Amino acid sequence: MARADRRGIRLRVLMEPRHGSTYDDILALALTTERTGFDAFFRSDHLMGVDPEDRTYRPTDCWTTLGGLARDTRRVRLGALMGAATFRAPGLLATIVASVDEMSGGRVELGLGTGWYAREHAAFGLPFPETAERFDRLEEQLAIITGLWRTPSGDEEGFSFVGKHFRIEDNRTPPRPAQTPHPPILVGGTGPRRTPAIAAKYATEFNSALGGDLRERFDVFSRACEAIGRDPAEPRRSSVLPVACGSTPTEVERRAAVIGSEFMRTNAAIGSPELVVERIEELSALGVDTVYLHIYDIHDLDHVELIGAEVLPHVTALEIAEP
């Protein structure tokens, strides 16, 4: 039996458009997400589409648009899945997220990963170190961000940090998020060693990414929590689910055609609302308590409306398997 405080799955909308977007596009989808009862609206943190040759792609900055949504929405939680630690310096990112959290009345969540898209970094002049260094930088960033957020304003000693890649000197005016002690932090990925170790130390929620053996990935994360004396049942566990849901075969086919790759289609829920519910039930049996429904056609607001009406009511009462 699941713990009482973990009853019910949180169903969230994740926007990662194939061809980019404008703020008006993003706002329309976020407002539909809010109106139809979903828990949160998340967006990807990318400046380029998966196809680097797609010249129609329109980049937008993740946290700039989340700041706009903080003022233009009222209930839905907001976040990035996943932000790239290579994009922003940690002190600046801590301040940006705290600002958006205050603007939203405490509805922001920070997802942060190593970054992975080398071509994107090259196209926008952003450094892209080797994998080991990116993990080092991610861990230092999380130490700095949480350290700044937890340092009381006016603290006599301030916050300082000396690492291999970042240095903070005597910050006595740290950024102040609205949430206490700070916004939830999401860390995740498929890495078998450093990802679960970093998540065990810093994450409010561990995201299992897409594909592979989720049960094994969660078991490794639980062992990483136990290794540092953390209760494995404390952090949430989430997964991404690409979705193409329709009331008719024609609708399903049209929405499935937008999903970008064979890998995504293999791991997607493609079919009727009943099929999508079944896929979410399978995830809940593995211990997933938060599902990010990956939406590709951000102009197809009827898609979100359908899932909100025909899927959401059936999954919010599901019980989650114990970690």
Automatic annotation (TrEMBL):
Keywords from the UniProt entry: Flavoprotein, FMN, Monooxygenase, Oxidoreductase
Chain residue ranges for the region called Disordered: 170-191
InterPro entries, A to Z: F420_OxRdatse_Rv1855c_pred (IPR019952), Luciferase-like_dom (IPR011251), Luciferase-like_sf (IPR036661), SsuD_RutA_monooxygenase (IPR050172)
Taxonomic superkingdom: Bacteria
Biased composition (Pro residues): 174-184
One Pfam family hit: Bac_luciferase
Gene3D superfamilies: Luciferase-like domain (3.20.20.30)
Keyword tRNA-binding applies: no
Keyword Secreted tagged: no
Domain Luciferase-like as annotated: residue spans: 16-256
Protein's name in the database: TIGR03560 family F420-dependent LLM class oxidoreductase
Species for this entry: Microtetraspora fusca
